[in-house]
Amino acid sequence: MEFDDPAGMLRVCIERLGEQVGREFAALARPGFRLLRPTNDAPATGRSRLGGLALLEPGTPWPELDGVPLSLHAVLDTDALADRLGEQLPTRPGLLNFFYLDPELPYEEYAKLDASRPEACRVIPADAARAIETGAPEPARSYPATPVHAAGSTMLPDCWDVVDDDVTFDAEEHWGAASLILTELGDFDGNTAGDHCAFGWPDTSYTLAVTRRDEDGPAIHLLQLAEDVALDWGWGDAGTIYFTIPVRAFAAGDFGRAEARVQCC
Predict the structure, then answer these.
(1) Is 70 within 8 Å of 117 (Cβ atoms)?
(2) Domains plus CATH for the chain?
(3) In terms of pTM, does the model score above 0.70?
(4) Which has fewest Cβ within 10 Å: 35, 89, 190, 217?
(5) Of 94, 142, 101, nearest to 121 (Cα)?
(6) Mean pLDDT per segment of 10 residues, for the chain of length 265 residues?
(7) Rg of the chain's alpha carbons, rounded to an integer?
């Protein structure tokens, strides 16, 4: 769920959930961005883009899985996002390049690979001052370079990314925290299904949480990429891919621990 106005978000949470639970739920909010096609009034945000060439530091090897190169899907210019993210961007990684095993590889080649392995995705940071455009080696696909405008918003987790310890609920009335959120906020049309988004919380409308948790809490959501006809990409029927990273790894700038998950109907 997303809101343009944090105060309005808190008001809705309290109106729907009550004073205590509303504030508990609102405390889970994170700043995020919808990644939109630029307009005259909303220009491209830094060097952020979908598709196109990778922006890597000289000498950075192109990521691969068992000798098969991954495809570059997006670049986020975190320097251009830093003012809004504030303390939630603990390091300054510069440019983040997002790679994933292309599902459109020839079937014979794709069938030999285990797309569930962590190496099927890679997030590679690059110093913006040193990064150079780097083309994909065959047979990785290159998608059309599409600049994006990062429209800031305040995002809340949807019901499937809420666990019972997050908010107070009546166990006699609800089977869990997810039931409470689904019941009281289920008709609120504020989710990000079908959109490209960065940071904040992912949309998990297929009843499967993508935000893994560990002792440090829910992982950091880096990027959500939905099916995009113009870019000729997709991950199954109405599929979406989500890149996340554990809190501690994000704080240390260890993007080698980022992972990707795909959801589809």
Answers:
(1) no
(2) 2-14+31-160+190-263 (2.30.320)
(3) yes
(4) 217
(5) 101
(6) 84 94 95 95 96 96 91 97 93 96 70 78 97 91 94 90 92 92 76 82 70 90 92 79 95 95 77
(7) 19
